[in-house]
Amino acid sequence: MSKLSKWIGLFKVEFDKHSPEILTGLGITGMFASVIFSIQATPKAMKSIEEKKKELNKEKLSVGETIEACWKHYIPTAVTLATSTACVIGANSVNTRRNAALAAAYSISETALTEYRDKVKEIIGENKEKDIRADIVRDKVNSDPPSANTQLIVKGKGSTLFFEPISGRYFYSEPEKVRQAALELGSMMLSETYISVNDVFVMLGLPTTNRVNDYLIWDVNNGYLKIDFDYVPYENDVCWVIIYSSDPIPKKFA
């Protein structure tokens, strides 16, 4: 393979990888260019219209005569605008195909993971699977315990330390308040068919972290979410850890 062929191949790979960004950039650049071409063409078009008026000895041209007099000046604008539109549509088309592929891949992975968990529960029992899930959360606390470098979020007059595993945050609250939040989340899930990660954060009294968590959900069709608690020794007290019966999944749009 010649060096030229190799470089062409590498260029094609990089272009395919970044084609949405490249096409979007070209589309935006083309939009600005079309505005500039339009501004530059307008004085020339006005001059042509005036010349046409003199040629036809008219004070006012018809629509057809006006277009005939100046359309050529706007050819660069039209070509640039059409090309820019094609680039934007192309970028959107590439993103749509990629998102469809990602959705298909995620669906396969989600199905495989669900089957795996169901089989684990079948073999070792649901209680043992819950114990394993609790051990994983406890390991998170032990590997990153609350310290001077950990931001503790204080809620009300709570004096009990809690750990929320999805965001990895510690916060103070009262056990009864957190249990009540878990019950209210369960009612919300039944009435609205799903709850988001941000719904959980709000109910626990935690600030929401980002909008992405609005689209990470527990869907009642995939099983009812149960929220349990466990304890990890911390200094002279304990830290309560929140344990979800399942992980959230991306929200599916019709």
Can you put this structure into words, describing what you see?
The protein is of the alpha/beta class. It has two domains: 3-105; 126-250, no CATH class. The protein is 61% helix and 15% strand. The chain contains six helices and eight strands; from the N terminus they run ααααβββαβαββββ. The strands form two sheets. A five-stranded mixed sheet has the order 1-3-2-7-6, sandwiched between helices. It has a three-stranded antiparallel sheet with strand order 4-5-8. A hairpin with a 2-residue loop joins strand 6 and strand 7 (237-244). Helix 3 crosses helix 4 (126-143) and helix 5 runs antiparallel to helix 6 (197-204). The two termini are 47 Å apart. The model has no long low-confidence stretch (mean pLDDT 79).
- Sketch the major β-sheet: 5 strands, mixed
Order of strands in the sheet with the most strands? Answer: 1-3-2-7-6
Q: From N to C, what is the helix and strand string?
A: HHHHEEEHEHEEEE
Task: Kindly report the average pLDDT value.
Answer: 79
What is the gyration radius calculated from CA atoms?
31 Å
Q: Which word captures the global form?
A: elongated
Summing up helix and strand content along with how strands pair, one would put the structural category as: alpha/beta
Number of domains: 2
Note the total helix count: 6
Low-confidence stretches: none
Distance between the termini: 47 Å
Fraction of residues in β-strands: 5-15%
Please bin the fraction of helical residues. 55-70%
